[in-house]
Design brief:
mainly alpha, Arc Repressor Mutant, subunit A, 69% helix
Amino acid sequence: MNKEIVKILNTLGVPMHFKGYRYLINAIEMLQENDDLKMTKELYVDIASKYKDTPARVERAIRYAIEFAWTKGNIEYALVDKIFGNSIDVRKNKPTNMQFCKSIANYLLYNFENDKEVILNHKENDVKATKLSNKVIEATEFILYNLATNIEFYKIFKKYIKAEEFIKESYVKFAKLIFEYNENETPINLFHFLEEFKNPEEREEILRILQLNYNYKNLEALEKVINDQIKLIKKAYFDKVVLESTNIDEVQSVLKEKKLFDKLYITLS
């Protein structure tokens, strides 16, 4: 996959999970190789053949992806002006499919190197914006506490959540220790975990988890809270992957898993 095209589309706010996103990449790549290609007679037909689709649906998917970016995406007008120049008043009108694809193809061929750092910084700023919310932190600490203190809970939930899905480095490390101890059936002394964390801030985070105490009236109440909290954690992880990834297949796989997980209800009985 052309990573430069991916960076441009991401910066313009084209959603990676849209079918038109993949088609746009193909169209731009083809125009980079031959800018005399015609959208209707050649590009749409070739892309449709590659993905077992129809030219009409390819055109519609590309048009919808562009429209979405222009109306609901996070448009960076400084970059847009550089890509499209005076060919269109981008603040009043969206580009046609051909204008969009051809302008990006030409920009990447002749001007991208000058602006590469700006585009990379744009993505870095987006990633920083994924800082965990207080709700996700509370959910994470709740689930980690239960995984560490209840082996039966661990046995049920280990197939629904992975250590790396806790996102924050200290939480991921703690989760990996919990998984390792439980898989090896090693008796868990909770405060021995602290010895693995040398950083004072991380030690404080883990100590806070170890000192938690929860009481629920019945199993049904606990079950509901656990499902809600795990879904919060998984959603934060899915969103992080979608934001940071430059791999369409990975994004689409994650979104499919997210949709399935939203419908899942895990029982403790």
